[in-house]
Design goal:
The complex is a heterodimer. By secondary structure, chain A is α/β, with parallel strands linked by helices. Chain A has ten helices and twelve strands. Chain A has a five-stranded parallel beta sheet with strand order 2-1-3-4-5, with helices on both faces. In chain A, strands 6-7-8-9 form a four-stranded antiparallel beta sheet, with helices on one face. In chain B, α2 runs antiparallel to α3. Classes of the chains: A alpha/beta, B alpha+beta. Chains A and B meet through α1, α5, α8 and α10 of A and α5, α6 and α7 of B.
Chain lengths: 265, 480
Amino acid sequence: MPYIMSQPTSAADSLRPPVRPADVADVSTGSGPSAEDFTMRLLIVEDDRSAADYLRKAFREAGHIVDIAGDGEEGLALALDGGYDVLVVDRMLPRRDGLSLITELRGRGDATPVLILSALGQVDDRVTGLRAGGDDYLPKPYAFSELLARVEALARRGGPQAADTVYRVANLELDRLAHRVTRAGQEIVLQPREFRLLEYLMRHAGQVVTRTMLLENVWDYHFDPQTNVIDVHVSRLRSKIDKGFDPPLLHTVRGAGYVVRDIAR
Amino acid sequence: MSFVTSLGRLVRTTAFKLIAAYLLVFAVFAGSLIGYLGWHTQRLVTRQASESIQADTDFMKSQFERGGISRLVQVVNRRSRAPDAGLLLLTSFNGEPLAGNVLNLPLNFLSQEGWQEIDYLRSDDAVRPPSRALVHVIYLPGEFRLLIGRDIVEREELRKIIIGPVVWGLALLVVLGVAGGIFVTRRVLKRIDQMTATSESIMAGNLSGRLSVAGTGDEFDRLALSLNAMLERIEALMIGLKQVSDNIAHDLKTPLTRLRNRAEDALRTARTEDDWRAATEQTIDESDGLIRTFDALLMIARVEAGQGQSAMRPVDLAETATGVAELYEPLADEQGLDLDVAIDGPLMVRGVRELLGQALSNLVDNAIKYGAPDMPGERGRIVIAASREGDTVRLAVADGGAGIPPEERARVLQRFVRLEKSRTQPGSGLGLSLVAAVVQLHGGSIRLEDNGPGLRVSIELPAELEVADPGATSPDDAAL
């Protein structure tokens, strides 16, 4: 049983059908294509200096611009000055806690996407965080690749693609209204869940999407499925949309997740 | 000194304070009742006396008006000698007695008109002790002064009759009350002291200590029995906790040691960048595994502590189970297992969708890990069945694998317990513990049964009686 492993990242590799090295993007070096032609301005509100410094460094390596606020009041003042694509807010902060910062921000009509970081990771905490006006919630400790993928997804949220009825990547087309998928003009029959999986991946085309993001957004599950069930679903989807077509579009990003992208472009 | 302190302790007890308070209330009540009666009787006696004095006064006045002072002197003298006569004294303006039966009256009594109470000696009986009387003094024309009075010695005697026994009775009551209080309180104190001594010894670490039960079935026995039950539970929890922390120490130390060894090994042997990268990735994987174990432990702890109760709402277990089955189906398929679903929905329960989903996925995950048949090339079968029977929703996940021997079934629900055969598989030994905790949080029960061959995990949950809109709990339906 080669693929039942406790480490999702390495298991992913053993599951995946053989890929050419070019398919494997690597975000951990920061030079991966996930940062292509896309620079975000981020505000990180985090009172732990070393955590904040680590995040600043990591986001900079990924090609983004980062400001840091050390407490809730400073964070609110900076956020209200505006100009940020995404705010990353720790929940427990001196002077003004994270949730109250978000509530205040929303109360003043600021809709900048907010990702909440929290050491509290239980179901109720996530719900209260989102109810306060947060857009996403990530419990600590987290993998930076997970945070980066989520922040990038938030920054592009509400982009033109969200309203489109047809998603297109290279010669792959997904019609959201007709529930139809074609590749190079040939119709591909997908199961309903496979359709939603592809829809989510294509909506975030060019962005790394983590397994947890897929589990949350495609299955609406906020728990740990232990084994790498998502990988099997993705590999099934890949065999339907990529097998026998060129170029390959659904790539595995080692240590992070998946991305749908036309590498040739 | 020790007597004083023990008396002080006695006096401070609730029982003693209660008795003292009752005693006080009773004494005040009895005292005021008797006081009221006495005061009323006295007033009656006094009123009778004053009425007859008034009648005499009117009579004397009329005699004086009719016959002047000489007639009054006659009348007074006659009346003074009558048996049971009241007090009578007629004087001239300078206080010289003209007639009457009262001796030794200080003159100042006569110096003003009106009602008074005085002590007096009667002129006809000098040996009697002074008596008390109510007198009325009037001035008559010609500066004559007339004193008319009535002995009110009966009133005084009545007062003595009432006050004496009351004082003694109350004194006796207080003495008996205090003595009884001390007696009762000492008995109570003795029991309390025993209990205190036992609890102190328990606090000192003797967790198996229990309060003594006298067997009389009184309130102390009832208290001791319920405290003993509580101690029983605490002891069981403490033993469990100790076991868990031992297990945590062991099960977390192992991967930590591995992690450390790998890092050390990399430091010593890594030459190329690829070596470093591989070592770092392994380190991250190991720590991810540790984080998962911690998360699972925390989740179990929170679920067992009853957290999440506030997040409970109607959940369609059929939808959750179908979703989990669908999530795992491809994985099972690759493992050579058919994942069959026999669900008759909707099956509404009151619960937390995430927790129920996690529990179900743990069960299916286990079934996939351990449910493969021994014969290579043969396809195994996992069945997820759910149905409603009366007020109960039954859910079962069954596989055709090696199963769990009956004697091990209770044990595998505990944290970190992994059977020898499963040691080779990855896992933390927390999966079934979490399932058990989730089931307990939802007020259900869990049984591990023989599926002949294989394991069958049966769960019963109380059904949610009012059927809510199933769409509300399954955002997936819209897209499907």
